[in-house]
Amino acid sequence: MGFLKNQFSSVIEWNETREGIIFYKFQNQEIKKGSRLIIRPGQDAIFLYNGRVEGIFEEDGDYDIESDIIPFLTTLKSFKFGFSTPLRAEVLFINTKEMLMKWGTKNAINLPAPGLPGGMPIRAFGTFNCKIVEHDVLIEKLAGIRQTYTVEDVKERIIASLDQLLMQWISREGRDMFNLQADARNIAKGIESDLDMDMRKIGIGITGFAIESFSYPEEIKKMQEKAAAQSMVGDVGKYTQMAAADSMGKGGGGSHMAADMVGLQMGMAMGQQMVNQMNLNGNSNAGQPQQAGTGTGAGPKFCPNCGTPTTGSKFCGNCGNQLY
């Protein structure tokens, strides 16, 4: 943060050498004749005299205190610098930029969940944006007693009420406790509205709030993975995909995945051949007594090559194989 070069500095400025400062105030400084005020982009400068706001300057630039600033001060517009009469005033520099900060729950939050008497412990992580929205409120609530105020101070205040807000908004409308990420946007919007209402009491607005992820206990994750795997096994296509993905996940690469796919296809083909062979044997056994008794020499009812019904033909209508 920037300071006057000395007690009788000729330049009043804030260099913002430290990130995350929402406002910086220097006080009890004597501003002498010829002093200049520098306002950088993203800054406002507020002159305070005896604790009262004398003027707010929002345009960035380099100003002469005597000619460019004092004429616009409420009660000091006629102030005249003398040899031994420097101006004693406070200058509050406001950071007008929107700031981004990461947040995370300090401890797990126990949410009511079916089948879990003690509740389900979860953690949440995300980001929020904030900026100063009301100068007067900020000065009244904070600047009178604080030299600086940082985004870390905002974060501390937000975290203090976040657990309760998460429980409040997650518990609404019967949300699925095991799939909160699907409704994270709506939950975040509700929390943002409540946080903004609370923070405006000190002149700071919450302009954005996002939930990046919910973290479940390891046991819950394993149960979810098992349930998902069981639901996929009944579908051969999905099972094939799952087997391929599992092979890649184990570092097998393309060769292992291809081997698994070929093995699965061979198994299915062998199974089909076994079914066809059983049908063929059954039909052949059933036809033997009839052939012995009638001597007609009728062929099989199913093609021994492809399993297609023969309908009494000498050749298979599907593959052309000679039947007898």
Question: What's the gist of this structure?
Answer:
The chain is α+β, with helices and mostly antiparallel strands and 324 residues long. The chain has helices at residues 65-69, 135-143, 151-170, 184-199, 218-233, 236-249, 253-294, and strands at residues 11-12, 21-31, 36-39, 43-49, 52-57, 61-64, 87-95, 99-104, 109-113, 116-132, 148-150, 204-215. The strands form three sheets. It has a five-stranded antiparallel β-sheet.
Textual characterization of the structure:
The protein is an alpha+beta fold and 324 residues long. It contains seven helices and twelve strands. The longest helix is centred in the last third of the chain and has 42 residues, at 253-294. The model is unreliable at 1-7 and 289-296 (pLDDT under 50).
Secondary-structure map:
Elements: E1 11-12, E2 21-31, E3 36-39, E4 43-49, E5 52-57, E6 61-64, H1 65-69, E7 87-95, E8 99-104, E9 109-113, E10 116-132, H2 135-143, E11 148-150, H3 151-170, H4 184-199, E12 204-215, H5 218-233, H6 236-249, H7 253-294
Parallel strand pairs: 1-3
Antiparallel strand pairs: 2-7, 2-11, 3-6, 4-5, 4-7, 8-10, 9-10, 10-12
Helix pairs in contact: 3-4, 6-7
Major beta sheet summary: 5 strands, antiparallel
Which outline best applies?
elongated
- Which structural category do the helix and sheet elements fall into? alpha+beta
- Quickly name the level 1 CATH class of the largest domain: Alpha Beta
Total count of helical runs of at least 4 residues: 7
Order of helices and strands: EEEEEEHEEEEHEHHEHHH
